[in-house]
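re: the backbone from monday

yeah here it is again, tokenized this time
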């Protein structure tokens, strides 16, 4: 039997239609296409893809379930290692992890593992599969507290419930999911997918407490009186700005605020939802990552006629997933590469101080810097202006300070993130563990989940064996 060299194409909604709404862009595979793609898997005995997955999903086994016509078994295979298959099947950067080591990829296109994972999870919803109940030992009576309901918090909550502990999850916002909910727009990750995966955890016994800001309502010290161990998965949601003149003008947003207003508070449906957002005609988004692409594509959907993505390096160095950059370009986002903002200006004498222009300078690439990427250098005298009425800064985030400042014994590194032991996630405080973006700085969904998995194992070992 000959093996198909190319991946089975994934259908997408046409740019002209999809840019008018917030519905999901990628259609995923149906049964026939999923089977065709699944058959491309070589079922390698040494399973490099499993090794490369931070939560070690048994990828060949779930792919085999598609070939065998038994996706329910595949669903339970994935759930054994991953409480968020619908999320990971959509936003996980497989191209840098499992798919990067796929043996098929040495000569041909790697198996499209993520889209197959999504197929299984979507089939589970369509067919009403429920997660197989794991046998709880009944041995563990302790309660574990988790702070933050992003991918790290949800993962450790699921693991501890499976081991048989009682779990209470404290979330500051009014809806669970962390960045999955307030950052990543619905056109990439529909809310119903997050809801479904959180509901699974609630059905396993999760006690979810929303609107619970730890550091304000209760302190870490007080939580330690209620729980035998604590996991901090509070993310890195503090916006960063460039520090250039004009960033305080009316119409300049951090990506965090822009996306939260739209995704969590549904400002695209204002005034039905009571959160306004400035719908710019001409919008500049600064940055080259997924956050920048999500902001630019949100601006398109809010009706902007022109959306400029300003990034100081070239396309190869862009940290955004390449398929998302492609999607953005298809939707009309103009990439202004090798450009950097110098200042933002408003109209002279305008009391409301509204944004009018962003001045950029052209850049060229020099020698590699500490990150290994070529350093962007300004080309003197190359400044030019773009007329804009909204600017979105998507240049990274830092650690949220509230909990850190109210927990004085927590050791932080020089960037203000929590210091932990790499293997266990234990912090400087006894029985307090941490993982995800609050330890590494902004990273990926699956790396946050991997860190949470390690911490869960360490907590169980500590509670059971005292070490
Ligand atoms: C717009 C955007 C797009 C992205 N796209 C991708 C992508 O395509 N693929 C990918 O892999 N990664 C992507 N990422 C990165 C990824 O989402 C993060 O790395 C991941 O969500 C980190 O997970 P976490 O659990 O550590 O933190 P978060 O997801 O940030 O969750 C932290 C949670 O803790 C809560 N919290 C904070 N402080 C407190 C407190 N004091 N008390 C109670 N709760 C608190 C927060 O409200 C939040 O819900 C993206 C990030 C953004 C912002």
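seq for it, each position gets an aa:
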């Amino acid at each position: 039997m000959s093996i198909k060299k190319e991946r089975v194409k994934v259908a997408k909604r046409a740019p002209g239609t999809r840019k008018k709404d917030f519905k999901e862009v990628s259609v995923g595979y149906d049964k026939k296409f999923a089977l065709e793609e699944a058959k491309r898997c070589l079922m390698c005995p040494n399973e490099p893809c499993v090794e490369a997955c931070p939560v070690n999903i048994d990828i060949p086994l779930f792919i085999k379930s598609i070939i065998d016509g038994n996706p329910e078994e595949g669903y339970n295979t994935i759930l054994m290692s991953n409480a968020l298959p619908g999320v990971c099947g959509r936003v996980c950067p497989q191209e840098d992890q499992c798919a990067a080591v796929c043996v098929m990829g040495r000569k041909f296109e790697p198996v499209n593992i993520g889209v197959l994972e999504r197929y299984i999870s979507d089939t589970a919803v369509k067919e009403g599969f429920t997660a197989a109940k794991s046998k709880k030992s009944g041995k563990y009576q302790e309660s574990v507290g988790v702070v933050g309901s992003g991918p790290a918090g949800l993962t450790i909550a699921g693991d501890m419930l499976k081991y048989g502990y009682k779990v209470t999850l404290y979330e500051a916002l009014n809806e669970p999911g962390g960045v999955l909910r307030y950052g990543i727009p619905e056109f990439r990750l529909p809310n119903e997918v997050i809801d479904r995966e959180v509901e699974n955890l609630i059905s396993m016994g999760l006690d979810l407490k929303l609107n619970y800001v730890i550091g304000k309502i209760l302190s870490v010290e007080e939580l330690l009186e209620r729980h035998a161990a604590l996991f901090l998965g509070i993310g890195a949601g503090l916006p960063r700005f460039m520090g250039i003149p004009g960033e305080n003008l009316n119409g300049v947003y951090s990506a965090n605020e822009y996306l939260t207003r739209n995704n969590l508070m549904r400002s695209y449906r204002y005034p039905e939802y009571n959160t306004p957002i400035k719908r710019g005609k001409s919008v500049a988004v600064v940055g080259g990552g997924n956050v920048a692409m999500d902001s630019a594509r949100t601006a398109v959907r809010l009706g902007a006629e022109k959306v400029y993505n300003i990034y100081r390096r070239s396309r190869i160095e862009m940290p955004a997933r390449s398929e998302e950059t492609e999607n953005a370009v298809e939707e009309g986002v103009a990439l202004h590469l090798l450009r950097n903002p110098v200042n933002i200006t408003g109209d002279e004498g305008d009391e409301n101080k509204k944004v009018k222009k962003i001045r950029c300078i052209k850049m060229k690439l020099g020698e590699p810097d500490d990150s290994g990427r070529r350093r962007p250098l300004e080309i003197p005298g190359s400044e030019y202006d773009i007329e804009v009425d909204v600017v979105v800064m998507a240049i990274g985030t830092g650690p949220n300070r509230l909990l850190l400042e109210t927990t004085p014994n927590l050791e932080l590194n020089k960037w203000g993130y929590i210091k932990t032991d790499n293997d266990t996630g234990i912090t400087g405080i006894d029985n307090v563990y941490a993982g995800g973006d609050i330890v590494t700085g902004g990273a990926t969904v699956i790396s946050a989940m991997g860190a949470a998995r390690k911490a869960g194992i360490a907590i169980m070992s500590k509670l059971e064996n005292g070490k």
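Residues 281 and 304 are 4 Å apart (CA to CA). The chain has a mean pLDDT of 95.
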